[in-house]
Design brief:
mainly alpha; binds zinc ion; about 375 residues; two-stranded antiparallel sheet; 6 strands; two-stranded antiparallel ribbon
Length: about 375
């Protein structure tokens, strides 16, 4: 990053960039990845960076391209000063007494023996710099003395709700949280499910989608369902990819996400079986509308975790089965499959995967076997589905 920044700006030190607001034309010279980083930093800066309050903090401020130093609303950018090494407030103040250095000192720095610049121009720029420095900083500069005991090392400090956050506390998690708060927008699926009377407790839904022991295919499908981005025939038809929006399995109704996973006539046996299994695990009956939500988005309650985890495994296996069957039918139009057998195989596969995933056998049995009377684990470690 330093390489690109030194090409695009006059600042070579990596830290300097965190004190600046980068101009759009500077950003355009950087690779996309760095643009994202710097744009995010810029946004963080605007929101939470506090004003400097001591001579040390004022002195390390860059003079140019600094959002806090403006002339007629515009940030300063005098290449003549920058190329002569005048970059920070530190470069235009006295070291041993308060105040700015006089103009002739600035002129001496810029006009060395090799080339002579227009002295009126330098004076004009210097006056602009002095007048653009915020009033509160000028008071500090004119009253506080910068001496060698001032540490010029830069410490990034943020201010959130009047609490100062020091550089050693600025972790990735910290920035992630700040950016999340400022920029996260609600997924469009939230309003879709709400409109269709599907109540979702989203933190629980995402927890269920991303359970670390789930296989990646399962996570992928559950994620797409939660975001309502599964390519149903209705959606494909809307974008002119297919000629019909009808369900490829029953061929009698439009295939939206509800039809695909719940309402298709060809799913009735499986759905009835699923209700039986889920009721058996939870030991209470779920009403039909809640079951829709459970089948699509998982169990969303705080009841005993192990029971919820097994329900999620069963439901993920069911979604995978339904989707897989539908894809097979789409490929081989008249192919006949027993969806219950397909589901049993899928569930067994998922459970065997978990039995290998959990090194602690007892934990596996407690979480994924014991909560249901319909799932049995025999002495030879075979999983038997009693339905
Ligand atoms: Zn159908």
């Amino acid at each position: 990053m330093q390489y690109y920044l030194s090409k695009a700006t006059c600042f070579e030190n990596g830290y300097d960039i965190f004190k600046l607001n980068i101009e759009k034309n500077t950003l355009s010279k950087l690779p996309e990845f760095y643009k994202y980083i710097l744009n995010s930093w810029d946004d963080l800066n605007k929101n939470v960076r506090p004003e400097p309050t001591s001579i040390k903090e004022v002195s390390i401020q860059p003079i140019f391209n600094n959002n806090l130093i403006r002339h007629n609303g515009r940030k300063l950018d005098f290449k003549l000063f920058q190329s002569s090494g005048i970059k920070y407030v530190y470069d235009i103040i006295y070291y041993v007494k308060p105040g700015f250095i006089p103009f002739h000192s600035v002129n001496d720095i810029i006009n060395d023996d090799s080339y002579t610049y227009d002295i009126d121009k330098i004076l004009k720029y210097f006056q602009i710099i002095i007048s653009s420095i915020p009033e509160s900083w000028r008071v500090i500069i004119e009253n506080q003395c910068f001496d060698n005991t001032c540490n010029t090392g830069y410490d990034v400090v943020f201010k959130i709700n009047d609490v100062l956050v020091k550089s050693n506390e600025l972790t990735s998690k910290f920035f992630y949280k700040v950016l999340l708060k400022n920029y996260v927008s609600e997924p469009t699926s939230y309003s879709y499910w709400k409109k269709n009377n599907i109540n979702a407790n989203w933190p629980f839904v995402w927890k269920s989608v991303f359970r670390n022991y789930k296989n990646h295919k399962s996570i992928d499908l559950d994620f797409k369902i939660a975001h309502n981005i599964v390519w149903t025939m209705e959606k494909l038809h809307k974008v002119n990819v297919v000629i019909t929006n009808m369900c490829p399995v029953c061929k009698s109704e439009v295939e939206d996400i509800f039809h695909m996973f719940i309402e298709c006539n060809c799913l009735s046996n499986l759905i009835a079986l699923l209700k039986e299994i889920i009721n058996d695990i939870l030991k209470h009956k779920i009403n039909d509308n809640d079951f829709k939500s459970v089948l699509l988005l998982g169990i969303q309650s705080t009841i005993k975790t192990s029971h919820v985890e097994l329900c999620d495994v069963v439901l993920s296996a069911a979604r995978q089965t339904i989707y897989k069957r539908r894809m097979i039918v789409l490929d081989k139009i008249n192919y006949r499959l027993n969806i219950i057998s397909l589901f049993k195989n899928q569930l067994k596969d998922n459970l065997y995967y978990l039995s290998k995933y959990f090194k602690n056998k007892n934990k596996f049995i407690d979480n994924f076997i014991n909560p249901s009377l319909l799932i049995v684990y025999d002495y030879d470690e075979n999983i038997i589905l009693d339905f």
